[in-house]
C-alpha cells in the first residue's frame, strides 16, 4: 500500500475513534439531561479510572499491557481497570435498583459504557499494530 | 497449557479487580436500598475481608521457599507463616461473621433486610476470592 494511502487510512481510523469517544460522552450526558436527573454523572468518576493503564503505558518502552512481565505497578493498574469496569456497570444498576433513575437512563448509561469499551479496545489494538509495522 | 498461564498473567489482575469491585458494589447496593440504617457491625466483615486479602498479597512468595536466606537469620520463615496464618484467621472469622449476620437478619424483622445479609456474605466471599486470584497471578514471573 502506498505510504500516503496508509497515513490517510490511519488518520481516518483515528478520526473514527474520536467520533466513538465523543459519541460515548454524548450518550452519557444525554442519559442525565433527557430525564433532568443528574445522578448518573457519578459514573464519570469510574470512566476517569478506566483508561489509566493506557495513559501510563501507552508510549513507554516498559513492558506493555499485553505482555506477561508484571511489574507491581502494571498489575495494580490492571486491578484498577477491572474494578472501574465493574464500577461503571454497577453505579447505574444501583441507581436503578434504588429507584433514582429509570430504565431509559440505565440503558443509555450501559450503551455509553459499551461505546467507551469498544473505543478503548480498538485503541489498544491500533497501538499494538503500530509497534508491529514500525519494525519494518 | 503454557498459553493459558501466559494469558492468566495478562488478564489476572484485571479479573481480580473486577471481582473485588463486584463484591464491594453489591454491599453498596444493599446499604443504599436498605430501609433501615445499617449499623457499623454489618460493615465489619467486608472491611476485615479486604484487609485479609491485602495481607496475604503483601507476602513475597520467595520467602516461603526452603533456601531463602534472610537478613534476619536462618529461622525467619516463621514470621511469614505467622503473617499468613493471621490473614487466614481473619478471613475465616469474617466469613463466619457475615453468615451469622445473614442468619440473624433472616430471623428478625426489625433489623436490616435479608438482602443486606446476603450482600454481606457475597461481599466477603467475592473479596476473598479476588485476593486469591491476585495472589495466583502475580507469581507468574
Automatic annotation (TrEMBL), chain A:
TM annotation in the entry: 12-31, 37-58, 79-95, 101-124
Family, similarity comment: Belongs to the OB-RGRP/VPS55 family.
Cellular localization per UniProt: Membrane
PANTHER family, per database record: LEPTIN RECEPTOR-RELATED, VACUOLAR PROTEIN SORTING-ASSOCIATED PROTEIN 55 HOMOLOG
Organism: Zizania palustris (Northern wild rice)
Membrane topology: Multi-pass membrane protein
Top-level lineage group: Eukaryota
Principal place of residence: membrane
Name of a matching Pfam family: Vps55
A GO cellular-component term linked to this record: endosome
UniProt protein name: Vacuolar protein sorting-associated protein 55 homolog
Lineage: Eukaryota, Viridiplantae, Streptophyta, Embryophyta, Tracheophyta
GO biological process, one term: late endosome to vacuole transport via multivesicular body sorting pathway
Keywords: Membrane, Transmembrane, Transmembrane helix
Keyword Membrane: yes
Keyword Transmembrane attributed: yes
UniProtKB/TrEMBL annotation, chain B:
Keyword Membrane among UniProt keywords: yes
GO cellular component, one term: membrane
Spans traversing the lipid bilayer: 6-28, 40-60, 80-102, 114-135
Pfam families tied to this protein: UPF0220 (PF05255)
Membrane topology per record: Multi-pass membrane protein
Record key words, sorted: Membrane, Transmembrane, Transmembrane helix
Subcellular location: Membrane
PANTHER family registered for this protein in UniProt: SMALL MEMBRANE PROTEIN-RELATED (PTHR13180)
Record family assignment: Belongs to the UPF0220 family.
Protein name, per record: Salt tolerant protein
Lineage start: Eukaryota, Viridiplantae, Streptophyta, Embryophyta, Tracheophyta
Amino acid at each position: 500500500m502506498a505510504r500516503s494511502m496508509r497515513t490517510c487510512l490511519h488518520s481516518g481510523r483515528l478520526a473514527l475513534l474520536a467520533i466513538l469517544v465523543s459519541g460515548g460522552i454524548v450518550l452519557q450526558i444525554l442519559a442525565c439531561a433527557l430525564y433532568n436527573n443528574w445522578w448518573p454523572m457519578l459514573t464519570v468518576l469510574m470512566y476517569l479510572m478506566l483508561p489509566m493503564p493506557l495513559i501510563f503505558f501507552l508510549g513507554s518502552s516498559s513492558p506493555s499491557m499485553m505482555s506477561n512481565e508484571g511489574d507491581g505497578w502494571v498489575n495494580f493498574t490492571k486491578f484498577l481497570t477491572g474494578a472501574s469496569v465493574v464500577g461503571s456497570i454497577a453505579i447505574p444498576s444501583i441507581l436503578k435498583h434504588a429507584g433514582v433513575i429509570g430504565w431509559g437512563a440505565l440503558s443509555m448509561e450501559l450503551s455509553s459504557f459499551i461505546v467507551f469499551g469498544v473505543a478503548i479496545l480498538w485503541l489498544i489494538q491500533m497501538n499494538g499494530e503500530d509497534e508491529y509495522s514500525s519494525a519494518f | 497449557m503454557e498459553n493459558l498461564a501466559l494469558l492468566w498473567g495478562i488478564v489476572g489482575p484485571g479479573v481480580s479487580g473486577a471481582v473485588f469491585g463486584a463484591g464491594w458494589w453489591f454491599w453498596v447496593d444493599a446499604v443504599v436500598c436498605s430501609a433501615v440504617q445499617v449499623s457499623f457491625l454489618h460493615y465489619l466483615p467486608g472491611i476485615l475481608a479486604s484487609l485479609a486479602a491485602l495481607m496475604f498479597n503483601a507476602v513475597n512468595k520467595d520467602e516461603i521457599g526452603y533456601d531463602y536466606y534472610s537478613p534476619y537469620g536462618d529461622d525467619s520463615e516463621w514470621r511469614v507463616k505467622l503473617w499468613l496464618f493471621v490473614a487466614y484467621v481473619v478471613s475465616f472469622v469474617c466469613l463466619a461473621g457475615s453468615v451469622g449476620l445473614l442468619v440473624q437478619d433472616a430471623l428478625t424483622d426489625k433489623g436490616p433486610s435479608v438482602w443486606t445479609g446476603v450482600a454481606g456474605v457475597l461481599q466477603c466471599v467475592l473479596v476473598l476470592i479476588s485476593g486469591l486470584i491476585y495472589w495466583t497471578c502475580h507469581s507468574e514471573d
